[in-house]
């Protein structure tokens, strides 16, 4: 049976058509309507009760840094390498908690404080916390980089046009100020360092000048000769270069410490070991660069001290050194960009990549200056060796003049660098420019009433359809004529659901007029012209033509389970047969839960069981009913052994007597799956048909009932689909023709004639 069920499932699913889906949807129309209305009403309520949300936007331009700002100390390390615009970094700064907190503080200090919802207490009078306001600000802000530009758009949402525009402008302004502060920060550190060093260098210069003056006055020494003066100038020049390199080295070390502090603020573990950022290749390049700078320095000093050096050869060799140094710097810059993009070092806000690049550049300059200082010290040491051969007084005078000249040149250099730093710091207003300030919007962006209503309608409809089709998927009950035929049954007819209230009114009227105490389910007697009565007459006709070659006299009516309408069916079938003029007897062979006597308003005593147990004669078992040619045999007293009685010899004799006296004998039996009574009677009748209740009888139960009937070799006449909702049979050709015939078509009977001609 499982294989039959599986095969039916496959055939059923593969043969679903558009009309099947429409039928399913129509059958669940109330679920769809209710779901649609619930979702639609909730959507409308939320749409019109939620507060309006407005959005304002401003745009800022992130500009690249100028050339002047990148020329301090003849290098671009102050700008973090190349001066490229880091739009992703700026976006992360805009999203940062730091900027949000600055904005909140600025809003709290503004004159518009009392007009801003974010700063107002809640319904219980509690003031909002800084963390809560910061989170609200970040959640309602949206940052977008316009494609292929350095323009960032800042959007903010609030409950009023004024508030969203005002807060958006404050965010943009605080971002500009923060950018300017950070831009000036590095140059400020360098300026402070130079100012401190200049004060010291000024004292050292005064001291050197005083010593030279005192020596000249006390020793009465004349000026140096030309050769000694030249030696002193060369030594002084070398020492001046050495001291300048040392100052630059100290400044660079100070810059690296400043950058390290910034990086450590963002991520403490990154500031502990910055040397781990470099790769072996970068270290090798840094060493090569330092060596090249040292060689260039020695070459320049050697050429300047030589009287016979060719100017053309000198410039050519110098270009070679400069080209080599430039190539090494280019490689270092490329490697630093690789580290920056590779994610070797990660920061929780992704703001440290630019600082890391600056640290790598500073580290390269430190190593280069260290190599340069070492080379200059070697040169100074050589010159000092040459001066040791001078007379004592001449040597001392040369030293004093040299010290004074070195201090003077160093002091002038530092003053120049300090002025450059001041100019750079003054020019550093940041690289953020506000292009368009936010203005108050006219219309809210939320809720979008038209869109919400459309979505609500679609979601409500989709939810209803989804529920209907999910229910259909899990519902295995028989619901249509097509399903009955797919199960392998000959369809004998379909009985629509009975309108109990309408029939009940007619029953009461008939009872008052004629005194008949019958149930309202006998619709064929109470309302013989109704469509339901016509359906029972169709069943009667189909049964008559089921076995053309062999007349059917005894018919058993059963069902797969209880409450499927078999007793109502057999009772109305008996009435239609009697109305046709046949002499009919209806036997209630359901000896467990008999209902025939209540349907016809009879007493169940002196029924079938009484006869089978030889307690009453045959003539007393037959009770007259509401029609002269319709007799009823009630169940009688309920026995403890119904199966044995129905399978007894007495039952066979009883059926034979009925055959002799009546044209048609109908048997109402218990459900075939529940008990074996129906299966026992199947072998004693001419045919049996199964009553299936639409929408309640399970397919598995029907297949099981069919299997049981086949096992006892029952002569199955077909199946009757009972309690069918006519509306749910949309797409069924049976009901199409049925309603056409009954005049539902606008053109009435003419339509039926056209259909019949089409079939013929």
Report on this model:
With 760 residues, the chain is of the alpha/beta class. The chain has 4 domains: 61 residues, no CATH class; 248 residues, no CATH class; 249 residues, 3-Layer(aba) Sandwich (Rossmann fold); 31 residues, no CATH class. It contains 28 helices and 12 strands. Helix 8 packs parallel to helix 13 and helix 10 runs antiparallel to helix 11.
Brief write-up:
With 760 residues, this protein is α/β, with parallel strands linked by helices.
Q: Going across the biggest sheet, name each strand in turn.
A: 5-12-11-6-10-7-9-8
Q: Give the helix/strand class.
A: alpha/beta
Q: Are there runs of 5+ residues with pLDDT below 50, and where?
A: 65-85, 268-276, 343-351, 511-515, 729-736, 742-760
The CATH architecture of the largest domain can be named as 3-Layer(aba) Sandwich
Estimated radius of gyration: 54 Å
Estimate what percentage of residues fall within beta strands: 5-15%
CATH homologous superfamily heading of the largest domain: P-loop containing nucleotide triphosphate hydrolases
3D shape: rod-shaped
Q: Predict the CATH topology of the largest domain.
A: Rossmann fold
The residue fraction in helices comes out at 55-70%
CATH class of the largest domain: Alpha Beta
> What's the number of extended β-strand segments?
12
Distance between the termini: 39 Å
Topology:
Blueprint: H1 2-14, H2 18-27, H3 29-49, E1 54-62, H4 87-95, H5 97-109, H6 130-139, E2 141-145, E3 151-158, H7 161-219, H8 226-266, H9 268-272, H10 280-305, H11 311-342, H12 353-387, H13 392-427, E4 432-436, H14 449-474, H15 481-486, E5 491-496, H16 500-514, H17 523-526, H18 531-544, E6 554-559, H19 566-579, E7 584-588, H20 596-599, H21 608-612, H22 618-621, E8 623-624, E9 630-633, H23 642-646, H24 649-661, E10 664-668, H25 677-682, E11 687-693, H26 699-711, E12 716-724, H27 733-741, H28 749-759
Helix pairs in contact: 3-14, 5-6, 5-7, 7-8, 7-13, 8-12, 8-13, 10-11, 10-12, 11-12, 18-19
């Amino acid at each position: 049976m499982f294989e039959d069920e599986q095969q039916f499932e496959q055939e059923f699913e593969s043969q679903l058509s558009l009309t099947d889906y429409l039928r399913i949807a129509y059958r669940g129309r109330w679920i769809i309507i209710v779901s649609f209305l619930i979702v639609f009403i909730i959507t409308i309520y939320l749409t019109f009760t939620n507060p309006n949300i407005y959005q304002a936007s401003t745009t800022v331009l992130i500009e690249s840094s100028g050339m002047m700002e990148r020329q301090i100390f003849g290098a671009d390390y102050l700008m973090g390498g190349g001066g490229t615009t880091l739009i992703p970094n700026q976006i992360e700064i805009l999203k940062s908690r730091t900027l949000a907190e600055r904005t909140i503080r600025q809003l709290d200090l503004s004159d518009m404080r009392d007009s801003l919802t974010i700063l107002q207490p809640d319904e219980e009078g509690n003031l909002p916390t800084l963390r809560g306001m910061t989170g609200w600000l970040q959640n309602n802000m949206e940052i977008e980089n316009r494609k292929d530009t350095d323009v960032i758009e800042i959007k903010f949402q609030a409950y009023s046009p004024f508030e969203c525009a005002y807060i958006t402008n404050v965010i943009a302004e605080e971002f500009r100020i923060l950018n300017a502060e950070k831009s000036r920060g590095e140059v400020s550190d360098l300026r402070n360092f130079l100012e401190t060093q200049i004060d010291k260098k000024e004292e050292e210069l005064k001291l050197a000048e005083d010593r030279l003056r005192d020596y000249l006055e006390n020793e009465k020494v004349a000026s140096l000769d030309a050769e000694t003066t030249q030696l002193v100038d060369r030594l002084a020049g070398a020492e001046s270069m050495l001291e300048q390199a040392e100052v630059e080295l100290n400044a660079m070390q100070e810059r690296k410490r400043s950058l390290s502090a910034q990086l450590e603020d963002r991520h403490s573990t990154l500031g502990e070991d910055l040397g781990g950022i470099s790769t072996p290749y970068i270290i090798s390049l840094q060493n090569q660069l330092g060596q090249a700078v040292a060689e260039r320095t020695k070459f320049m000093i050697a050429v300047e001290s030589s009287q016979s050096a060719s100017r053309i050869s000198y410039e050519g060799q110098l270009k070679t050194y400069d080209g080599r140094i430039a190539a090494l710097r280019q490689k270092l810059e490329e490697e630093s960009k690789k580290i920056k993009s590779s994610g070797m070092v990660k920061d929780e806000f992704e703001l440290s990549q630019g600082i890391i690049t600056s640290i790598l550049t500073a580290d390269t300059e430190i190593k280069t200056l260290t190599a340069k200082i070492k080379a200059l010290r070697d040169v100074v040491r050589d010159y000092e060796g040459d001066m040791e051969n001078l007379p004592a007084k001449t040597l001392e005078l040369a030293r004093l003049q040299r010290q004074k000249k070195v201090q003077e040149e160093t002091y002038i250099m530092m003053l120049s660098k300090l002025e450059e730093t001041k100019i750079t710091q003054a020019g550093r207003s940041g690289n953020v420019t506000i292009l368009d300030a936010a203005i108050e919007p006219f219309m809210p962006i939320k809720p979008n009433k038209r869109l919400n209503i459309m979505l609500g309608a679609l979601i409500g409809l989709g939810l209803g359809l989804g529920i209907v089709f999910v229910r259909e998927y899990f519902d295995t009950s028989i619901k249509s004529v097509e399903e009955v035929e797919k199960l392998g049954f000959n369809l004998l007819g379909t009985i629509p659901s009975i309108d109990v209230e309408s029939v009940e009114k007619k029953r009461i009227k008939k009872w008052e007029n004629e005194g008949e105490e019958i149930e309202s389910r006998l619709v064929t007697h109470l309302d013989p012209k109704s469509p339901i009565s016509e359906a029972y007459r169709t069943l009667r006709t189909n049964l008559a033509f089921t076995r053309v070659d062999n007349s059917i006299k005894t018919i058993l009516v059963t069902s797969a389970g209880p409450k499927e309408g078999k007793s109502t069916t057999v009772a109305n079938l008996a009435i239609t047969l009697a109305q046709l003029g046949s002499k009919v007897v209806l036997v209630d062979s359901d000896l467990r839960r008999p209902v025939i006597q209540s349907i016809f308003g009879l007493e169940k005593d002196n029924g079938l069981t009484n006869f089978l147990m030889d307690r009453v004669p045959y003539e007393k078992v037959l009770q007259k009913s509401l029609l002269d040619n319709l007799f009823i045999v009630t169940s009688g007293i309920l026995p403890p052994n119904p199966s044995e009685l129905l399978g007894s010899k007495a039952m066979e004799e009883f059926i034979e007597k009925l055959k002799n006296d009546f044209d048609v004998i109908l048997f109402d039996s218990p459900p075939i799956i529940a008990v074996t009574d129906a299966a026992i009677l199947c072998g004693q009748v001419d045919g049996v048909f199964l009553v299936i209740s639409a929408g309640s009888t399970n397919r598995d139960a029907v297949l099981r009932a069919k299997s049981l009937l086949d096992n006892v070799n029952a002569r199955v006449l077909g199946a009757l689909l009972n309690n069918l909702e006519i509306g749910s049979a949309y797409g069924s050709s049976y009901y199409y023709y049925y309603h056409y015939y009954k005049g539902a078509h606008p053109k009435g009977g003419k339509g039926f004639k056209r259909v019949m001609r089409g079939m013929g």
